[in-house]
């Protein structure tokens, strides 16, 4: 195959941004390789289609974790996008920048380029924020919209109950502390993934080539330098070379897997699978972090989205509304309101994220097919998520075959501080639930309630029921030292030239909120570092 300047592996949140940025110079030839296919499916483009793509193996890697001792040995379901746009094409579209101290912690872990001040100015370059009255802030390519009065009316009681227990209101919930309406990566009623915002406009350029349905098996390394990649397409194997750099953007599960298959990783792990060691980097696959949330589900005293979306005639009406106006429940994320708050006034930072959704559902499994089914009664949910867990997990190989899924060991709740976070978050929910505004919404609680549980009971309930919020990061950690980290702060792999990892796997620590915005910001800033040859 023709030589390129850059080969990017993975057209996800990060890969699409990089492809656009690097191909902006018409003298630079970029090849983008993606394992999944096109993103033109209706349920990808339609925001509430989230429920459909969640289990759809045609667009989703649909991983399962190993039994997780911290979660009562349960195996978690970990969806990841396998399609143009990657996980930004199947995610819940909540846009949240993270909190300043999250990035200052990146900087103090030996990555001064990523302090909050630099990160904040990068966010401003990517954002195009559309208020509910149509006013626009920022000229970036990524549309972030305020759902305004398209939000369900139980928002009122949620905000009243938060105010009653002194949680601050945040009218501009793209970052910072407080509760309010979530902002969503939605443009005119359609999902604004990084494929829509960055990749598709750039594909008009003759110097950007895209191949889909391509599984990259290995990075080629000669004399300590990455020179290209090996990939499979429709059963045949190909090699493609580049003049400058290979950039791995496969996400927090697949990037460490690809490095290990290429001989870059913990020598013991590579040895176990008979993979020749090219670059002994013990940190590859370690430092896995994720957010976990617990959900309280209620039968509601008022009609919720269940009433509109459970019966066939309601679905038809919502579909018609969407086709005619691009509004209504199909044009929204399921996470409509919530925010980042302190579980108690003495916390230094907001430590708990809340989600409230005017919808409830259960999972139905038939054979190897699962689907989310909206409850046939008015329901709503309240979830909470500790923001900065200290426990760490690991991605391992199960064998040396590129087609095998890696083993995901989440390592949840191994650190005692994480259990303290659960108790504080549970008590915060208890205070919120007990307010008269919240109580006015409850017809019947459908699972255990925090006021009925002592602290050990809260932890046990969390272990039995909590699930991922789909924010794995950290498995190719950024840092100055090759014993503990995989890439330096310019995201160059320690010990192998012309090779970078740029995606959520390089975060040294989780950001306090959702991880799509920080990944996009990271890719945007990294492209500048590459262009400036830093
Ligand atoms: C169900 C779900 C809901 C979420 N909700 C939210 C939310 O509401 N808000 C938010 O901020 N974040 C959310 N997230 C998280 C957020 O979307 C991710 O953190 C972010 O998309 C990660 O970006 P990435 O570039 O690291 O990886 P990805 O976007 O996952 O991209 C990786 C890409 O690489 C491709 N790839 C991998 N391996 C190979 C290979 N060997 N060869 C070729 N291609 C390969 C993949 O197919 C994929 O397209 C959610 C995630 C999921 C899955």
List the topology elements.
Layout: E1 4-9, H1 13-22, E2 30-33, H2 42-45, H3 50-53, E3 63-64, E4 77-78, E5 94-95, H4 100-108, H5 116-126, E6 127-130, E7 136-137, E8 142-145, H6 155-164, E9 178-181, E10 183-184, E11 186-187, E12 190-191, H7 194-202, E13 208-211, E14 215-222, E15 225-233, E16 236-248, H8 251-261, E17 264-265, H9 267-272, E18 279-280, E19 292-300, H10 305-309, H11 312-325, E20 337-341, E21 352-357, E22 361-366, E23 369-374, E24 379-386, E25 394-396, E26 407-409, H12 416-434, H13 436-439, E27 442-445, H14 455-465, E28 467-468, E29 499-501, H15 516-531
Parallel strand pairs: 1-2, 1-16, 2-13, 6-8, 16-29, 17-18
Antiparallel strand pairs: 3-4, 5-10, 6-7, 9-20, 11-12, 14-15, 15-16, 19-24, 19-27, 19-28, 20-21, 21-24, 22-23, 25-26
Describe the structure.
- This protein is of the alpha+beta class and 534 residues long.
- Helices cover 27% and strands 24% of the residues.
- It contains 15 helices and 29 strands.
- The strands form 9 sheets. Strands 1, 2, 13, 14, 15, 16 and 29 form a 7-stranded mixed sheet that branches.
- The site of flavin-adenine dinucleotide (FAD) has 42 residues, from helix 1, strand 14, helix 8 and helix 15.
Based on the model shown, name its key terms:
single chain, 534 residues, alpha+beta, seven-stranded mixed β-sheet, seven-stranded antiparallel β-sheet, 15 helices, 29 strands, 27% helix, globular, binds flavin-adenine dinucleotide
């Amino acid at each position: 195959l023709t030589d390129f300047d850059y080969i990017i592996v993975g057209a996800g949140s990060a890969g699409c941004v990089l492809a656009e940025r690097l191909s902006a110079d018409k003298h630079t030839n970029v090849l983008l390789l993606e394992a999944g296919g096109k993103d033109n499916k209706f349920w990808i483009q339609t925001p509430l289609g989230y429920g459909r793509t969640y289990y759809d193996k045609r667009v989703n890697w649909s991983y399962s974790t190993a039994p997780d001792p911290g979660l009562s040995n349960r195996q978690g379901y970990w969806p990841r996008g396998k399609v143009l746009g990657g996980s930004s094409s199947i995610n819940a579209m909540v846009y949240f920048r993270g909190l300043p101290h999250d990035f200052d912690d990146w900087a103090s872990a030996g990555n001064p380029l990523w302090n909050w001040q630099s990160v904040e100015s990068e966010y401003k370059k990517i954002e195009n924020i559309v208020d509910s009255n149509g006013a626009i802030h920022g000229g970036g390519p990524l549309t972030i919209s305020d759902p305004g009065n398209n939000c369900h009316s139980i928002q009122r009681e949620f905000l009243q109950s938060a105010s009653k227990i002194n949680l601050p209101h945040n009218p501009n919930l793209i970052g910072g502390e407080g509760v309010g309406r979530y902002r969503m990566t939605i443009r005119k009623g359609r999902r604004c993934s990084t494929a829509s915002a960055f990749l598709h406009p750039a594909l008009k350029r003759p110097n950007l080539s895209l191949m889909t349905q391509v599984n990259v098996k290995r990075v080629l390394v000669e004399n300590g330098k990455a020179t290209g990649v090996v990939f499979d397409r429709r059963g045949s194997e190909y090699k493609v070379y580049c003049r400058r750099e290979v950039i791995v953007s496969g996400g927090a599960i697949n990037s460490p897997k690809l490095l290990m298959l290429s001989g870059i990783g913990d020598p013991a792990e590579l040895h176990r699978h008979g993979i020749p060691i090219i670059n002994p980097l013990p940190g590859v696959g370690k430092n896995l972090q994720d957010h976990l949330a617990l959900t309280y589900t209620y039968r509601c005293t008022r009609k919720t989205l269940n009433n509109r979306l459970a019966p066939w005639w309601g679905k038809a009406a919502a579909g018609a509304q969407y086709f005619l106006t691009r509004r209504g429940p199909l044009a929204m994320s399921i996470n409509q309101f919530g925010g980042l708050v302190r579980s108690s006034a003495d916390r230094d930072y907001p430590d708990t994220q809340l989600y409230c959704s005017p919808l409830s559902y259960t999972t139905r499994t038939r054979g190897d097919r699962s689907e989310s089914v909206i409850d046939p009664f008015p329901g709503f949910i309240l979830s909470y998520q500790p923001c900065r867990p200290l426990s760490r997990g690991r991605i391992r190989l199960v064998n040396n075959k590129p087609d095998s899924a890696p083993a995901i060991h989440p390592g949840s709740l191994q650190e005692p501080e994480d259990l303290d976070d659960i108790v504080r978050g549970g008590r915060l929910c208890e205070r919120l639930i007990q307010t008269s505004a919240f109580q006015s919404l409850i017809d019947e609680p459908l699972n255990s309630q925090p006021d009925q549980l002592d602290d050990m009971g809260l932890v046990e309930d969390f272990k039995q029921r909590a699930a991922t919020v789909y924010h794995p990061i950290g498995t190719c950690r950024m840092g100055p030292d090759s014993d503990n980290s995989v890439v330096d702060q310019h995201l160059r792999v320690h010990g192998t030239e012309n090779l970078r990892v740029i995606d959520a796997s390089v975060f040294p620590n989780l950001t306090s909120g959702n991880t799509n915005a920080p990944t996009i910001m990271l890719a945007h800033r990294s492209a500048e570092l590459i262009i400036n040859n830093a």
